[in-house]
Each structure stands twice: as C-alpha cells, then as structure tokens.
Amino acid sequence: MKVLIADDHHVVRRGLLFFLKTQKDIEVIGEAVNGKEAVEMAKELQPDIVLMDLMMPVMDGIQATRKIKEQNPHIVILMLTSFSDRDHVVPAVEAGAAGYQLKDIEPDELVASLRSLMRGENTLHPKATSELMKGPVEPPAHTVNLLTPREQEVLFELTKGKSNREIASALFVTEKTVKTHISNIFTKLGVQDRTQAALYAVKHGLTEPAQ
C-alpha cells in the first residue's frame, strides 16, 4: 500500500517513516508538513492511505481530510492525533476519516490499522469509540426508516467494528450478502464508508439490534 504522511512535527514524521519502511507491504511515497500540502500531494501522488495529523498550520487535518475526499474519494484517511474527545473525533469522521487512532498507539497496532483500512474495515481507538458511543447528538432522521430490519442488524454489527466475515457469522448469512447490505446502507444513508455508517448509527440511536 502507498502511504502519505501528513504531520507538522519533524520528529513524528521521522519516527513513522522509520518504522513503516520496515514493512514489506507499505511504501511511504511522501511527507506533508501541513494540511494544504497534504491536499496537494494527495492529488499528485494518489496514495492509498493518508496518515493525517489533526492539528497542523495553514490547514488542519479535518479541513484537509474533507478536501482530499472531495477530490479523491478512493483515498483512505487515517487520523493520527493526540486528541480523543468527541469534539475532535466526530468532525474528523464526518469529514471522511475512515480511521481514528492516537499517537500513543504501538507501532504494530498502527500497521494493523493500516491493513484493516485497506480491507475496507473501520479502525477506531477505544477512546475514540467511547466518545462516539456516549449517545445520540441529534434526533432520529426519517432516512433511518429506509433501512430494512436486516440492514439495521448489519449496521448494528458495524458499530462494533466487525469485519464482513464476522458479521456474516453473527447473522448466519454469506459474506456476499453482507457486502450487498453494506452497499445498500451506504447508499441509503449517504455515507462513504463503514466508519461514517457507524457514526450515523450512534447519532441516530441505532446502536441496538433491530426489533
């Protein structure tokens, strides 16, 4: 996978580069020192994943994430930051970040997160998940009624960070069926990935299985 690192701290970039270069399946193709540069480099280099800092000069990580996803929807954003509060987690996910990890993450866990994202899975630090799960921040919307009972069950399993295989096992269906349901969920809810779908579920009180 091709990775672009975006962080304004030289020491952080050096540390990430040093470790990621030891991974045979990961190629670091660029380093950006602010959000604006990250947007420009993402457009030029077309990485698979951008490892994005949250607080940066010129343009912050949330603004940069939003612009990158607007220009290149296929690029995956993993937010790597020191902030785990709801006021930072929710805007980052809403902007398009598919993953949210803290900078105290172990190197092996970071690599595992990158690989999970490449498989289309969501990856959130436990503290970030805890913030998201504190409760709905807005009343249910009418779009919730568009989901079938089975789609609501799949969405419920998504909020727990399960893979397609795990969801299929839990619901006694095939992985192909799960993929179809997930595609329908994305379309009906107007979201781009599993993380945004999970956030939608939390915001609309859909964190319990369909009755």
Automatic annotation (TrEMBL):
One of its GO terms (biological process) is phosphorelay signal transduction system. The modification 4-aspartylphosphate is found at D53. Residues 140-205 form the HTH luxR-type domain. Keywords: DNA-binding, Phosphoprotein, Transcription, Transcription regulation. Residues 2-118 form the Response regulatory domain. PROSITE patterns: HTH_LUXR_1, HTH_LUXR_2, RESPONSE_REGULATORY. The keyword Transcription applies. It holds the Pfam family Response_reg. InterPro entries: CheY-like_superfamily, NreC/VraR/RcsB-like_REC, Sig_transdc_resp-reg_C-effctor, Sig_transdc_resp-reg_receiver, Tscrpt_reg_LuxR_C, WalR-like. One of its GO terms (molecular function) is DNA binding. This is LuxR family two component transcriptional regulator.
